[in-house]
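Example protein was shown:

_____
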Amino acid sequence: MNVVTDVLRQSVVVFSQNYLPMSRVNIKRAIVLLVTGKAQPLDFSIGNGWLVRSPSTSIHVPEQIRLTFGNRERVWKVPPVNRREVLRRDAHCCQYCGNNRHLTLDHVMPRSKGGTHTWDNVVTACERCNSRKGDRTPIEAQMPLRTKPKAPMHPTVAFAEMFWHEYQIGE
């Protein structure tokens, strides 16, 4: 294993100006942000990071950096409830049995019983489970959902949630 190529495969977590974890970037992009002054190092844990050397200089690249410029947050809208977006949210997998073939959409609370066509009431279901469930609720059909349906999150919020879950203190 070459130590140089190992360092180049690393990634750095980028925080916004107000310390919200936004994304991961490769170490080359992190170096550019640090050298141009668009980011500053965050030393959450002493001794972590990488020392990157060039013929004329060396730079310490930490595992986390914080942007120094205020980028305006892009407006993000919750996508519409449609087949493509529901399949994406449910990872192209039936929410009753886990099958990934012959997928349809199912209303958890049937529309005939007052269910709405919203993110928290529509799930992906295979044809077999959808017809087996029929015009009943999952409880009536004794078919529990694998995950609770919910609207997609803003990508930055989703990354922040994943980041804080990954770096929980005390585990």
